[in-house]
Amino acid sequence: MDKKRMNGLHHVTAISGPPQANADFFTKVMQQRLVKKTVNFDDPGTYHLYYGNETADPGTILTFFPFVNAGPGRAGPGMASAYAYAVGQRGFDTWMERLALEAIDFDGPAERFGSRVIKVSDPDGAKVELVEVEGDDRPTLDGFHSVTLQLDDMEPTQRLLTDIMGYDEVAHETKNGEERLRLQLPGDVRGGVVDLMRSDVPSIGRQGAGSIHHVAFRALDDEDQLDWRERLVSAGMDVTPVIDRQYFNAIYFREPGGVLFEIATDPPGFTRDEDLAHLGQSLQLPAQYESARDRIERTLPPLVA
After folding, report:
1. Assessment of whether the complete model's pTM goes beyond 0.90
2. What is the pLDDT of residues 271-282, one digit of tens each?
3. Structural domain boundaries in the chain
4. Whose CA is closest to 215, among 7, 2, 14?
5. Residue 1 pLDDT > 70
6. Domain 8-299, what fold?
C-alpha cells in the first residue's frame, strides 16, 4: 500500500457548561466567529455550536456541546487534553498585550519545542493554547496548530499516526514531569501537528465541562474518506460506517490509546444552509428535527451571539 498522509485537523469538539458564557468567551475574547448554531444530533435539546475563522475553513473549527448542568470534566490518559491555535511571532506579542490590557489572565509564556506558548482559561477552566509560529501575523486566530493526546503508552498511537496516517516524528522532550513526542505532517498544513504526552502525575480522565470529546481529521471528499476508512480497517481499527453530519460526512474510531478520532469531509461545508455573510445567525436544524422546531426552540436556553 502506498504512503498516504492526512490533511491536518478538520475540527475539535469539546464539552462546556452554559452556552452563553461559552459563546461570549470564544467570540469576544478569542475573536472566533460563530459559524453555525445547531443542535446535538443525538440530543436535540442541547446546542451544538461551531466557531471558526471568517470563512469557516476546515482546520479552524472548534465545536462545543454546551450542557447547562454539565459537571466538571478532567483530562486524563486516553483523552485529548489540549488544542492549540497557531499565532505568528508579532501576533503572539499582540495577543499577550491585548489579554493583559483586558485583564484576562493567561499562563506563560512557556517554551515548548523552542516556541512560546501561552494558555488562556475558558469559562469551564479548560486551557486554550496559543503557540507561536513563523509567518502569519494576522491579529485574529486563523486555525489550529496542534492537538495534544494524553496517553499512558505512546507507542501504539505513535505507530498508527506514523505508519498509517502519514505523520513524521519530529521532536521529543521531557520537561517538568511531562514527556512529549511531536508528530507532524510535512509542509505548511493547518493543524498539522499532533503531540503525544505522558505525565508523571497520576490522573483519571472524566468527560464533562472543560474536556475534549473528540478530534477530527480532514478528508478532502467522500472518496478520500472511504479510502481512509479502508486503510484503517485494514490496520485493525474498528471504524463506523459513514454518518451524515449535515455539514460533513464522518467516520469514527478509537485510536489504540483510547482517544476518539473522527475523519470528516470538507464538503458540503457550513454554507450548505446559510450564506457566508449570515453564518451562525439562525438556529439550523437537520431535516429530521424541523417538524419539532417550535418545541426545540422553547427547550434550548436563550443564546445571544
Report:
1. yes
2. 999 999 999 999
3. 8-299
4. 14
5. no
6. 2,3-Dihydroxybiphenyl 1,2-Dioxygenase; domain 1 (3.10.180)
